[in-house]
Amino acid sequence: MKILRSSKWTITLMIVAALVVLGATNVFAAPKQKNIILATTTSTQDTGLLDVLIPIFEKETGYFVKTIAVGSGQAMAMGQKGEADVMLVHSPDAEKKFIAEGYGINRRLVMHNDFIIVGPSTDPAKIKTAKSSAEAMKLIAGANALFASRGDNSGTHAKEKTLWKKAEINPIGQKWYQETGLGMGQTLNVAAEKKCYTLADRGTYLAMKKNLKLDILSQGDAALLNIYHVIEVNSAKWPKANTEGAKAFADFMVSQKTQNIIKTFGVDKFGSPLFFPDAGKKVEDLGK
Amino acid sequence: MELIIQGIIKAFELIISFDPEVMGITWLSLKISGTATFISLFIGISIGTIVALTNFSGKRLVISIINTGMGLPPVVVGLFVTILIWRSGPLGFLEILYTPYAMIIAQAIIATPIVMGISLASIQNLPPNLRLQILSLGASRIQMVWVLIKESKLPLLAAVMAGFGGVISEVGASIMVGGNIKGYSRVLTTATVMETGKGNFDIAIALGIILLILAFLVNLLLTQVQQRQHPR
C-alpha cells in the first residue's frame, strides 16, 4: 500500500507548511494605528540618511514609519491621492503647485545640497570649461555626447528639465539623450557603464563614488541648488491621513537635534557632509 | 570578477556572523513566500482538480486562461493589488498596503495559477480508467479524488516548487505592495534591488547568493519528499 506510506510524507509537508504560516502571523503584528507613510525621494534613502534618522524618530515617538522611496514626482502623486501622510521631497516648482492646489500644508525647508553634472573623466564635450550649468548642457548637446536622464519625474529630473530649458535645447528624442526611468543610484551606474554625462545630487554621488568611474565636471552654479522640503498632506482633503503623525515627523525633521545630525551626516565616511541643514532659513538665502 | 569574489566572501561573512538584519530579511522572505505558496496550494490544487475532473462547455477556454495565468507578470499583479488596497481603493479599509500581508496576497495571486496549471495537467494525465477502477473498488467520490491527488504526488510537488520558486524570486510586486520597508517588509529580492541602487554591489551579490541558498534548501527538502522511493 504505497498510498498509506506516502501519506506520512504528505502530513510532514503539511506540518512544515503550517509552521511557516503560524510563524508568519505573529511577527507581522506591527503597530497598526501609529503608522506613518513617508513618501520621499530615492536620494534620502540611497545616501543612508533616513536609516539614521528614522530609528531615532521611531524611538522618541513610538510611531512606525513606512518609508516609500520613489521619485519626488511619484511621492507627490501619492500625497495627491492621500496615499502618503508626509513627504520629504526636492522639486520646488512641483511642491508649490502641490500646496497651491490644496493637497499639502505646512511646507517647511529642511536642508539642501547641490546638484552636480558628472561624466567620464575624458570629458568628451569639454564641459569643464563651461561657465554655467546651462552652458555645460549646451556643450553636451552640441557634442552629441551621451546624457543619461532620470526620466522619472523625480526632483532631479525636474531640475534637469529646467537646465535644458535655460540652455534652450529640447533633448527629447535625440539619439544622445537616454532616459533610464530609474532612481539616482541606478542612473549613476548606467552613466558610469555607458560613459554618459548625467545630473546627480551630490549626496547620492558621494555615497556611491567608490564604485563609479565618473568625475564631477560642473558644479557651484546657483541654478544647481537642491532643496529639500517636508510637506504634510492636507487632512481636510484626506481625512484618512495620519495628520498627527505627519506633523510629528515634520517637526522632528526641522528640530534642532535632527538638524545637527544632518549637519554631520556623512562626514566620517566621505570627508564632507552630504546635506546642509536649513530649518528656519529662507530659500533665497541658500548657497550664499 | 573581483566584485563577484568580494560578493561571495561577503555572503559567507553575513551568513557565518548571523548578521541580524540579513537573517531577518531571509526569514521574512521565507515566511512571506512560504505562506503565499501554501495559500496557492489550497486554491490551486482544488480548482485544478475540479477543472480536470469535470466536463463542461468552455473547459478549453478555462484551461487556456489558467495556463496564461502561469505567466502572469508580477508587476501587473503588483499594480492591480496596489490599486485595490490603497486608502482610496475599494479594499482600502483593510489598511494593508505596504505590509507583509499585501505581499502575501500579491505573491499568492502569482503562485496560484502556476500551481493550478500544473495540478490540472497532472490530474488529467492520469490513466482515464483509474477513476473507474477506484470507484468500482467501493470508494466514495471524495475518496476517489483524494487517491487521484496522491497518485499525482510527483507532479504536484513539482507544482509546489514552481510556485515557491516563482514567488521567492519575484521582486516587482513585492516592492510595489510591500514598499521595501526596513525591518518590516524588506525581503531578499527588494533588498538586492535597493543595494544595487546604492552601489553596494558586494552586499547585493551576497543577498543574491543567500536567496539562491534558501531556494536550494527549500527545493532540496521538497525533492526529498518527492523522490522518496516507495515500493511498487
**Derived structural class of chain B:** mainly alpha
CATH class assignment of the largest domain in chain A: Alpha Beta
Radius of gyration of chain A: 23 Å
* Extended strand count of chain A: 10
Q: Can you characterise this structure?
A:
The complex is a heterodimer of chains A (288) and B (232). Chain A has 288 residues and is an alpha/beta fold. Chain A folds into 2 domains: 140 residues, Periplasmic binding protein-like II (D-Maltodextrin-Binding Protein, domain 2, 3-Layer(aba) Sandwich); 110 residues, D-Maltodextrin-Binding Protein, domain 2. Helix content of chain A is 44%, strand content 20%. In chain A, strands 1, 2, 3, 4, 5, 6, 7, 8, 9 and 10 form a 10-stranded mixed sheet that branches. In chain A, helix 7 links the parallel strand 5 and strand 6. Chain B contains 11 helices and no strands. The N and C termini of chain B lie far apart (50 Å). In chain B, helix 3 packs across helix 5 and helix 8 runs antiparallel to helix 11. In chain B, 46% of the residues are buried. Chain B is mainly alpha-helical. Helix content of chain B is 77%, strand content 0%. Chain B has a domain of 160 residues: MetI-like (MetI-like fold, Orthogonal Bundle), CATH 1.10.3720. At the A-B interface, helix 1, helix 2, strand 2 and helix 8 of A face helix 2, helix 5, helix 7, helix 10 and helix 11 of B.
